[in-house]
Amino acid sequence: MTSSTAGLLTELDNGILRLTFNRPERMNAADFETMKSLIDAVTDAGDNPDVRTIVITGAGRAFCTGADLAAITTNPTDPQIVMDTANTVIRAITSTSVPVIAAVNGPAAGVGVSIALAADLTYAAESAYFLMSFVNIGLMSDGGASALIPAAIGRARAAEMLLLGERLSATDAAQFGLVSKTLPDDQFAAHIESVAKRTSAAPRRALQLTKAALNAATLDRIDSALELEKTGQAELLVGADFAEGATAMLQKRAPHFK
């Protein structure tokens, strides 16, 4: 069964629900409607006994390159609503009763990184990379990244990603422990399929309780991080630095912060 909503392709087959960011012309940058569709799909899946595994990936050559800056600047939404939506995505992924696999088939940036790391199993193709460039446009990390990234790779390496906005290759992501495994591009799809079939055949309740216990032990600070990010980002989204940073990015020039 396949359906398509705003920016998201949904396919359920043999217990595996595949959710594909479907804005390849924008490198799968997510607009408000795409995020809402993702929330609905993940939330509904947790209540659907026919769904036993969720796979999140991207169409074309990107996974998800974060929020669509063009959409934000041309059709601005209340910053509180923007942050509530981003936070709800992460909470939906971490709390849903079935395993979530992030198949990072290409670049992941901004909230795309947070979505990938909120998943229970995260795999990357060798051509992928991870980028948290919020500071480069006058913003702070969000989507729970301030908890998700250090939980995976420690504070020192997380600080380089978040404070310097440096790109992390998929190879380094696997070496640091940010992802479960990085695979050659030509082996990536087969590996995702193999893992998804394995989790979809496993006892659902056992996986649900294991996931809950694992998250309680490793992501116990996620809610406080989401709230701190919401407060800070809501302030920054209406600030002069973001206005300059976003304009500079869209104009493909260096920003000039005062």
From TrEMBL:
Recorded superkingdom: Bacteria
GO MF, one example: catalytic activity
Family: Belongs to the enoyl-CoA hydratase/isomerase family.
Protein name per its UniProtKB record: Enoyl-CoA hydratase/carnithine racemase
Source organism of the structure: Nocardia globerula
